[in-house]
Amino acid sequence: MGQYRLYHTDPLTTDEFASQPVAVQKTWGKDILVKSWGHLTSARVFFRKVHGRVPSGEQVSTLANDKKRLEEARSHLTWQDVTAAFKRGEESNMSRKLSYMP
Fold first, then answer.
1. Where is the DUF6697 domain (predicted)?
2. Rounded distance, CA 19 to CA 14, Å?
3. Which of 11, 24, 65, 85 is deepest in the core (most CB within 10 A)?
């Protein structure tokens, strides 16, 4: 327990993400595929994997907002697909927070 302060910082760089232990990368990759905060990332990764190009904002929103289609899309992705997108720099919204006890 204790008191903590959280600070928002810039997203992790590609190299910083790649240097994380595999367990950390796997946790992020899996969570993106099941948590609501990962809808947009899942949609972008799926679209690039299937269509081989960067999707438009409208295409991402349409897929992310259709629960049934998004669930189907996510079923075709692995945590490795997600983490590979971060390592290639295709995704970069992985925020880091620093905490400390005063």
1. 1-92
2. 9
3. 85
**Which amino acid is located at 46 in the chain?**
F
- Domains in the chain: boundaries: 5-100
Angle at 69 between CA 39 and CA 44, to 5 degrees: 40
Lookup: tokens for 53? 């190009």
Exposed, middle or buried, 83 (CB in 10 Å: 0-12/13-18/19+)? buried
Contact 97, 9 (CB under 8 A): yes
pLDDT in tens, 17-47: 899 999 999 999 999 999 999 999 999 999 9
Query: Using the 8-state DSSP alphabet, how is residue 55 labeled?
Result: P
> Tokens 């929103």 identify what position?
61
Write down the H helix ranges in 13-101.
14-18, 22-34, 39-51, 57-64, 67-74, 79-87
